[in-house]
Amino acid sequence: MIDQKEIHNQCYSEDPKVRRHALEQLQNFFSSIPDKQQAWDDLHILIDDQDSSVRSSAAKATGSAFSQVPDKKQAWNDLHRLTDDENGWVKSSAARAIGSAFSQVPDKQQAWEDLLILTLDQSNWVRFSAASALISAFSQMPDKQQAWNDLFAFTIYEKWIVRSSAAYVLGYAYPHVPDKQQAWDDLHILIDDQDGSVRSSAAEAIGSAFSQVPDKKQAWDDLIRLTNNEDDSVRSSAAEAIGSVFSQVPDKKQAWNDLHRLIDDQDGSVRSSAAEAIGSAFSQVPDKKQAWNDLHRLINDEESYVRASSNHSLGRVSIFMASQAETDEDYKKELEIAIEFFETAVEEVSYDKWANPSQFCLPFYRSFHTIVFKKQEAKEEVDRYLEEAKAAIGDSESKKQLYEAVENLANALKEVQNLGNLDLLKMKGELNFYRKYCDRAAELMKNTDEKAPFATEVLRKGFPILDRNFKKLLEEIQEKAKIVCEESKGTATEEIACAVNREVQKWEIDSQKEMTFCAKNLCRALKLIIPPVSENKFILNEIENALNEKNLINLFTITSTFIGSIPALKMVTDKLNNLEYLVLEVNSKVDELVILSKPGFSEEFVISSGIQLPGLSAEHVVTIPLQEISYFELKEDLEKIKGKSIEKISQLPIKLAEKLKNYLLRIERNDILKRML
Questions:
Q1: What percent of the chain is predicted at pLDDT more than 70?
Q2: 266 near 306, Cβ under 8 Å?
Q3: What is the CB-side half-sphere exposure of residue 547 using CA atoms within 13 A?
């Protein structure tokens, strides 16, 4: 139970440590605090604290609580002011806070400019934090092409470290930029920068952007050319990038030959990166025997960190082999072999745990093995292994997010204990479920604060929720949707039931944000097409409850309930819900401007794209009350567009098009408007 009065009193303590503790409480529990105005007032006061460590904590708390603070304008002004603080740690915290709150800040252009300025700061940590925030912010900038140009301008800055950071950020920004050909040309130029660190970042950027570049052959040739660069760090980064993009290369035989060549590089860091790349790409390489032999050769390398990387990759390969095993005996054998490789990797670089992701994977897979094969004595042993995994994370600020991962893994693994005896198929399923999470955690661990803190931040945002409850609920939703689709065959609800089934089968365990996004978009779409008659009151109420639900487990539970009710829906007309709509085709995607008319409801426009439900698509949904775009001829114009297929917004009646544009600009949905122009 949160004691707000105690937190309030701590905010006014004379001891900075106590004030920082109060801010940590506000940061972690702001959503649970009953009097948010009081909490915000306390937080706002500490923004100007005389102690720099308190100001830094206040910046973090403001960023974390931003979406729920009563006065977002003041909160933004506070963060904006802190970007000019005399203390580097405060500026760093302000940068990260702006990145996390970017979608909610009232002045995105100013926030973007603040972050750009901070990338030029004298402090490495401030620059790194700003770069991390820029990655978060880019996808939400109204004018992404201009944002790209802003970043690219930094690649010609005199200081190499600024150019290097900018190059790295561009790799993560690439999927969001509209002109991908020009963006690719920009990235391509960076591989010839005079500084090795910039070329190294360019190699990583190409790896990040590879899936969407228009010329994959050129991108691959660039990476191969960089593997012959005179700078060791460039060759190393290129090798890592090759491993990450291997699955997307059409000619895997040639790609394998290129990767195979790198294990004989004269530099140990390149050989180490090549070993990591083979571990990442193993499932796709055409000559798995040669890959296995290469890794075995590298475990005898003269450099301990090369031996550690090779043993870690052999452990990953053995986990993959276990997931493909055809007998219980082979499954157990491969899992135990993997544990031995991880153990050897830990011993090779025991003095520097941050350089060794096996520090995390070893206790994790040991605990998994214990649960599956030693159920009776599992609890004490599992707790010990998970404590080792937690200890491997250490006290680094940017690694603290892994604590949550470990706790969730602990809860998830303990759930496995309750499953009874597992057959081979279930054991393989469990292993595959956790394998990618352990790999992601290992990837986080190797990105140290000093090397790439902004990369760590990006990975953190994509870190999946490691809880079997979500997996169980998702499987329940998908199974229920499948049954509902079958039950509805030949009835009035068949179209909607089977469309829902197709949609939820695409869902995956992902970040909480992404999972919430999927579930609530489905709710919005169904709300629009289910007739508001008394027979449908229950399911419409459940959908409304889901839309208002903040807890993801509750959201999934409610979703499962109303999906089960779909066959009982009352469909009252040929056109679902009396929807009259027009289709706007933009960039091969379907956007729909839906004119919604419901008895007892106010009329609305709804613009959406993505989820394919009967007569509706709703990846991005913007609801526009007609009173917001009202004018004298509105009803007449609505009659003109009924039932028409329209490719561009310019095909709407002139006044309607103008009103719609102005409304979207007013609510800062330039992204939707651009897709419709």
A1: 73
A2: no
A3: 14
Q: Quick one: average pLDDT of 257-264? A: 89
Q: What is the bridge-based pairing of β-strands 589-596 and 604-609?
A: antiparallel
Q: Which residues of 472-481 are buried (b: 16+ CB within 10 A; e: fewer)?
A: ebbebbbebb
Distance, C-alpha 194 to centroid of its chain: 33
Do 116 and 126 contact (CB within 8 A), yes or no? Answer: no
Tell me what pLDDT residue 434 has.
Answer: 65
Which amino acid is located at 181 in the chain?
A: Q
Whole-number Å distance between alpha carbons of 129 and 108: 17
- Domain borders along the chain are 299-462, 468-568, 579-676
Share above pLDDT 90 across residues of the chain, in percent, rounded to a whole number: 17
Q: Which of 352-366, 461-475, 589-603, 637-651 is the least confident region?
A: 589-603
Nearest to 397 by CA among 91, 86, 89: 89
Over the Cα atoms of the chain, what is R_g?
Answer: 27
Cα 626 from Cα 606, distance rounded (Å): 10
Tokens coding 332: 């157990």
Which helix (H) or strand (E) segment holds residue 624: the answer is: strand 622-625
> Could you give the 3-state DSSP secondary structure of residue 249?
coil
Tell me the DSSP string of 563-618. HHTGGG----SSSGGG-EEEEEEETTEEEEEEEE--TTS--EEEEEES-EETTEE-
Residue 339 banded pLDDT, cuts 50, 70, 90: very high
Angle (deg, nearest 10), helices 358-373 and 424-446: 160
Looking at residue 283, what is its pLDDT?
Answer: 86
Q: Is 387 exposed, middle or buried (0-12, 13-18, 19+ CB in 10 A)?
A: middle
C-alpha span between 452 and 378 (Å, rounded): 37
Count other Cβ atoms within 10 Å, centred on residue 74: 14
pLDDT of residue 570: 85
Residue pair 418/359 in contact (Cβ under 8 Å)? The answer is no
Residue keyed to tokens 């609801």: 623
Tens digits of per-residue pLDDT, 151-186? 888 888 878 888 888 888 888 888 888 888 988 988
Higher-confidence residue of 65 and 579: namely: 65
